[in-house]
Amino acid sequence: MKYFITGATGFVGGEVAKKLINAGHKVHASVRSLDKASALQSLGVRLFEGDVTDKESMREAMTGVDGVFHVAGWYKIGTRDKSGGEKVNIQGTRNVLELMQELKIKKGVYTSTLAVNSDTKGKVVDETYHYTGKHLSEYDRSKAVAHEVAKEFIARGLPLVIVQPGLIYGPGDTSSIRETVISHLKGQLPMLPLETELTWAHVDDVADGHILAMEKGKPGENYFICGERYKIYDAYLLASKTSGKKAPSPVSPKFMAILSVLVKPFESLLPEVYSSEALRIVAGVTYLGDNSKAKRELGYNPRPVSEGWVETIRHEMKLLGMI
Question: How many domains does the chain have?
């Protein structure tokens, strides 16, 4: 089979590309810079210069493929430039799906996120849940709009499957999750809220979930490809045991919420990890999803956090020369 992938130079898209190549498939990828995609080229991925913000730049790469993985997305928390939410997440998704429709591609998988559901207030929700309130970050908001764009195309007959990961972690991460890990390993993570809880999944399992969705997913359906629920504070207690570094001090979610308001006038002077938005989204929030449907219909089987998180911490320790 021949597949087209957006976001192949990214954390999840790169793993999807690698798994497809290893399984004997042909892979086309649209990349913004050919010079920065040598790792993909060495895998055997056929590269095309293009970007999701420019529909026509993807036409050649998508022509003649059996399936499309639209993985590319803008994921920034606390950043001062939030234009990527509109340009990449929303308009980029519309561009990819319009082109998929024009070229009559047989099947597609779109990477949404559990974050479209915002804070679930401690409730573990499934694919039938629909959130209509205000979102906590521009990433959450823009992905929620893009999710609705995908559903509109499905309603018009596009053979699309939607997958929704939760928190994605693992070696090779370049997101704010990794920045927090590095801060911990350098002894620069003084505190974390007690009640913030997410459903975590290792990047390798998330990539598997994408491929399973292409192979077994029903067009028009969405699947939560998240893992087990785990509190952020507990994750850093485990990180502390692994690294030997002091664990962050526990603080109440209310304290973090107040702090997010207090820093707002000064956030231009602070690192983005301490911005109002970054503090707000960890102030006791819960992004919780039930992956039963993905397990039942796709055969999705994510590893426990205790296994994958230790691997991730040790990977970063090696990069820092700590082991």
Answer: 1
